[in-house]
Recover the amino acids of this structure.
């Protein structure tokens, strides 16, 4: 029974982390740093 409880806790932690990571991508695009252009600025 203890293994089931640990498994459920792990699943809940993973779901919380996934939700936080999904929120990270949203926001103001102007506030993000511009992407680097490798090899084009010579």
């Amino acid at each position: 029974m203890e293994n089931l409880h640990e498994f459920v806790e792990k699943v809940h932690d993973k779901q919380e982390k996934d939700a936080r990571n999904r929120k990270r991508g949203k926001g103001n695009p102007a506030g993000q740093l511009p992407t680097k252009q490798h090899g084009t600025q010579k």
In short: The chain has a mean pLDDT of 77. Helices lie at 2-24. The chain has one helix and no strands. The two ends are 63 Å apart (CA to CA).
